[in-house]
Amino acid sequence: MRAVTFTLDQPDGSHIAYRMFGADSEFEREQIYHLNVLADETVILLGRLRGDLDEARRWLGDHTDVLGYSISSEEPQDGLVYVHARPPPVMKQFLELPRIHEVFFNFPIGSTSDGRLSVEMLGETNDVLREALADVPPELDVTIERIGPYPEAGGHILALLTDRQREVLDIALSLGYYDVPRQATHSDIAERLDCSVATVGEHPQKIESRVFKHIHP
Q1: Run of H or E residues at 46
Q2: How confident is the model over 102-115, as pLDDT tens digits?
Q3: Read out DSSP for 55-122?
Q4: Smallest Cα–Cα separation from 161: which of 175, 141, 177, 145?
Q5: What pLDDT score was predicted for residue 146?
Q6: Rounded to 10 degrees, what is the CA torsion of 92, 97, 103, 109?
Q7: How far is CA 164 from the centre of its chain?
Q8: 3-class SS at 171?
Q9: Is the pLDDT of residue 151 over 70?
């Protein structure tokens, strides 16, 4: 079994999925836990949303492509959201890849700080995965992070990470970021990687999330 990890950009547009989760959005789509394309080509999904949930209810309630929704939360800024909606055409085309190719998505689907979707897709061979990727609409702008063996339970834990995440982890360890007391900051890591602190900031969280889910599913 092979796996490819990639991010998807989202084009500008009037659909609520683009307006709520663009780079400048006040909302953050943390993860999509479940997603299903129905026979009428609408989509239902369950995910976690961070932001002003009352404002999110107004957005969802006012948009004609949203056929139904509910938000459950004990916190005003963080909750589970169920949505039944008509997807944007290019996203519908993307979600149909498992119907056309011998692949499937590995849930949950994550999200980057700038609103891009972070997806892992599984298939029997690299060729199968590449054929599916070739059918991703160009408007979604695929950036491949890793393609290789699927890290089975009990496999080497570093196989869970993308090449970039492993690079960040190596530097973080060498600088003492995980020492007690901590010997380095995000700024120190960013300086070594020659990138912004904001870019570095999301990597340790994703590394820790993948590792902890692996050792304690």
Answers
A1: strand 43-50
A2: 999 998 888 776 66
A3: HHHHHHHH-TTEEEEEEEEEETTEEEEEEEEPPPHHHHHHHTHHHHSSEEEEEEEEE-TTS-EEEEEE
A4: 145
A5: 83
A6: -30
A7: 15
A8: helix
A9: no
Rounded distance between C-alpha atoms, residue 166 and residue 183, angstroms: 19
pLDDT digits (tens, 9 = 90+) for 45-79: 998 888 888 888 888 888 889 999 999 887 777 88
Query: What is the Cα–Cα distance from 17 to 37, expressed in whole angstroms?
Result: 16
Instruction: Give SS3 for 142.
Output: strand
Q: Sheet holding 66-75: strands in order across?
A: 66-75, 78-85, 43-50, 28-37, 103-111, 117-123, 2-8, 142-149
Sequence-separated (6 or more) residues with CB below 8 Å from residue 118: 5, 6, 7, 109, 110, 111, 112
CB count within 10 Å of CB 5 equals: 22
| Identity of residue 39 | A
Report the largest interatomic distance among the alpha carbons of the chain, rounded to a whole angstrom: 56
Q: Provide the pLDDT confidence category of residue 160 given band limits of 50, 70 and 90.
A: low
Rounded to 10 deg, the angle between the 186-193 and 197-215 helix axes is 110
Mean pLDDT to the nearest integer, 159-166? 71
Distance CA 111, CA 150 (A): 20
